[in-house]
Design goal:
Elements lengths: L3 E5 L11 E8 L2 H8 L9 E4 L5 E2 L4 E8 L4 E6 L3 E7 L4 H10 L17 H5 L2 E2 L2 E2 L4 E8 L5 E5 L20 E11 L9 H6 L10 H15 L7 E5 L5 E3 H10 L5 E3 L4 E4 L1 H7 L6 E2 L2 E4 L2 E7 L5 H19 L8 E2 L1
Parallel strand pairs: 2-5, 3-5, 4-20
Antiparallel strand pairs: 1-2, 6-7, 7-12, 8-9, 10-11, 10-12, 13-19, 14-16, 15-16, 17-18, 18-19
């Protein structure tokens, strides 16, 4: 196992930001992770765990140790008539796991296709799209504490999941390395096309005959049409979370903005479309120096021409300021800003 110094991260983050890490190691097995944990020369360094680099913005060089998750593999560990339990390595790309499951007709994650990043990053963010969240199908998360190498398995109920959040993003941020996750998927899948965009895709179809492969393919079409390819135009997908407010606050906003876009939340709360709020402030498709918003989706901030992380961050702050000035709503980044 090689420890790299002053390592370029330009090809390891989907924004394509040209940052560097003081120390960098690829973790391809639990054995290599234990070697790093036991390396006394690295004990004093701050640690950042990196997956696919699709939800991170480097605003400066990282003066610490980056651990890149490269643990691969997919294995069926249990099954019955109704369900199959699949264990996957944290360094596997998320989309490859989705395709594997759909090809086997194991249902539950087809709506989450083409979400960039790795399997290990999925529970950190509690990834979600088109009416489905990871917590709906997650059975457990395996990993190791970086302080002492202790192994632990978290059941889904222990992960403190919420909207784009988990214990791995808060209390255990960069201190617990996810080696594998286990999903509980259906062998008799029922499709979920409740999300409006998906409904339109299947409005002429018989709901009883829609397959998970058709849903996966429909989500791919939608995402490819709406979101830019990071290989062509650097981005990290949705930059901000959809803000949550109380129902009575929504009623007040509707009086002034009748077309405001909202989604049902938990209890007496609703989510507002961050993209709609940004668009109403005139930011859709705007270029601002080397950065800007994507022409088809204002929630996506893009790197047009070798923008620095600081440029992108400053642009994001400008969007936050104008949205707050107009709506008195504070947008919170979904992207991890370093």
């Amino acid at each position: 196992m090689e420890i790299f110094h002053n390592y370029s991260l330009k090809d390891l983050n989907t924004f394509g930001v040209n940052a560097r890490a003081a120390y960098f190691v690829e973790i391809s097995s639990e054995k290599s992770l234990i070697e790093i944990i036991n390396n006394k020369k690295l004990k004093w360094l701050d640690i950042l765990i990196l997956g696919g680099g699709s939800n991170i913005l480097f605003t400066k060089n990282y003066n610490g140790l980056i651990l890149k998750n490269e643990i691969k593999g997919i294995k069926i560990v249990d099954e019955n008539k109704e369900h199959v339990f699949i264990k996957a390595g944290g360094g596997l790309t998320w989309s490859s796991l989705v395709d594997y499951c759909v090809d086997k007709n194991y249902g539950g994650i087809e709506n989450l296709t083409l979400i960039p990043g790795t399997v290990g990053a999925a529970p950190v963010q509690n990834i979600g799209a088109y009416g489905v969240e990871l917590k709906d199908v997650l059975h457990s998360v395996d990993g190791m504490f970086l302080a002492d190498g202790e192994k632990k398995s978290f059941l889904a109920d222990d992960c403190e999941f919420s909207y784009r959040n988990s214990i791995f993003k808060t209390k255990l941020k960069n201190s617990f390395f996810i080696t594998k996750i286990t999903l509980k998927l259906s062998k008799k899948p029922k499709t979920n096309i409740d999300y409006n965009t998906l409904k339109k895709e299947f409005e002429k179809s018989d709901p009883s005959k829609i397959t998970i492969k058709q849903v996966r393919d429909a989500v791919k079409r939608i995402r490819m049409n709406k979101l830019p390819d990071p290989a062509v135009l650097g981005n990290a997908g949705s930059f901000f979370k959809n803000p949550e407010i109380r129902l009575d606050e929504l009623d007040g906003l509707k009086k002034e903005y009748p077309s405001i876009v909202s989604f049902r939340g938990k209890g007496k709360r609703v989510k507002l479309s961050a993209g709609w709020l940004i668009e109403q402030c005139g930011w859709k498709g705007i270029r601002f120096g080397n950065t800007g918003t994507y022409e088809k989706q204002s929630l996506v901030i893009v790197n047009h021409n070798n923008a620095t992380g600081r440029e992108i961050h400053n642009f994001a702050r400008l969007i936050q300021d104008t949205v707050y000035e107009k709506f008195k709503i504070q947008l919170v980044p979904e992207v991890n800003i370093i």
